[in-house]
Amino acid sequence: MVILGGGYAGMTIARFLEKRADKIGWEIVLINRDNFFLFTPMLGEVATGSIETRHIINPIRQLCRRIRFEEREVLDINTRKKVVKVRQEATGREEGVAYDKLIIALGSTTNFFNIPGLNENAITMKGLGDAIYVRNHIISLFEQADTEKYPQIQAPLVTFVVVGGGFAGVELAGELNDFAHYLRKFYPFINGSLIRVVLLEAASRLLLEVGEDLAGFALQTLKEKGMEVRLSARVKEARPDRVILEGGEEILTRTLIWTAGVVPQPVVSALPFQKDKRGRILVNEYFQSLDDPDIWVAGDCSSLTDPRTGQPYPPTAQHALRQGKRAARNILAEITAGKKKPFRYQMLGQMAMLGRRSGVAIVLGFRVKGFWAWWLWRTYYLFRLPRLAKKLRVMLDWTIDLFFERDIAQLKPYHHRPGAQADFN
To answer: Most exposed of 148, 237, 285, 425 (fewest Cβ within 10 Å)?
Structure first.
């Protein structure tokens, strides 16, 4: 049995089956391009320095000690031969991994909607490397701006544009705004009035997933924190030094962060399976592919219609986690001649932080806003973070952040000289 992907769905399935490996009697192989599980809700806080980088990741080999793990990139899936083509990063070697049953949980990648220049000039926030890059990028721009004498040169360097008014975009913009104004006190030659954080949303309001009252509160809070929020604003083109909106308006900036949509990974898109309009693989209520019962699909790359709404379940971490649990139980049931059960899930709630000590939340039907929503966000996600050691480290980070200044050193990567790496081929 081969599991592709170490995100929420893939890790949930792997950890469930690992505990029952003796009962199953199958060899279980988990393949992921990174050797860790990333806790994505806290990426924004890593990007702005309130949480240390390694504290939101857990090594897969420590989470799953009884299954075989391989750190490899998935290149292709041959469903006819039942072989997954993979590549090892260190050596570049490519080979095939055979399977009897395959679980696809490869998540999603950023959707740039074919907007000119976006792929080349926008920063994404999907992985740990993105968070590290954003932090270094922002600090580097402040360092450069502090040496410039003219406001017209300084302004684009300290103008930060975030596109996407959903949970990811709102949370990142709030964190980024706090961080940018925090940095200001260390750079005396930057005019503080030039610092701008601009949030662009194509819809007529923020946070479409919550009610208008909470969305209105979020909008007002972000504006009170000094942010510019532009609704019904669509990006027409992205260039290295500016963002061009539909209608012709230009925002001069060196930082464009894109959080406005996802699509399945190219490996998933290439499969000859039935898919929905977003390219996600159609599955039955047990998470088996409609085209191949030996292939199971869960998480962002699967499409299952919610019978209550008539729409596919959304690609969120909350749903991926629950889908992984149900898919794992159904896989076990099939192997052990048990009874499979259909997936039915109603969201427990949704939460978004709006920067320091403010947020919005819907929990079990109750609407919460302000400080208590922010406290709920931190409490809930702290408990969801795997392993006690990581929970304690994040708690310590938050405590230190209350009493001490954040570290503003850049973490520049060290590059070996060309040719220094051994030839493994």
So the answer is: 425
Using DSSP bridges, classify how beta strands 123-124 and 228-231 pair: parallel, antiparallel or unpaired.
unpaired
Residue 252 is part of a domain; what is its CATH number?
3.50.50.100
Does this model's pTM top 0.70? My answer is: yes
| pLDDT at residue number 415 | 55
Confidence of residue 198 (pLDDT cuts 50, 70, 90): very high
Residues 147 and 209 placed together within one structural domain of the fold: yes
Predicted local distance difference test score (pLDDT) of residue 346: 82
pLDDT for res 226: 95
Q: Are 58 and 50 in contact (CB under 8 A)?
A: no
If asked whether residues 140 and 247 sit together in one domain, one would say yes
**Are the C-beta atoms of 229 and 205 separated by less than 8 Å?**
no
- Tokens matching residue 195: 């610092």
H/E run at residue 10: helix 8-18
- In sequence order, the β-bridge partners of residue 283 are 289
Total structural domains in the chain? 2
Residue 295: domain span:
2-33+72-110+262-335
Beta strands 255-258 and 159-163, pairing class? parallel
Report d(CA 170, CA 162) in Å as an integer. 8
> Rounded CA gap, 302 and 312, in Å?
9
State both tokens at 278.
Answer: 């977003």
- Domain check: are 255 and 266 in the same one? no
**CA-based nearest residue to 122, from 277, 223, 261:** 261
Q: Does 410 score more than 90 pLDDT?
A: no
Do 131 and 186 share a structural domain? Answer: yes
Q: Does 249 share its domain with 279? A: no
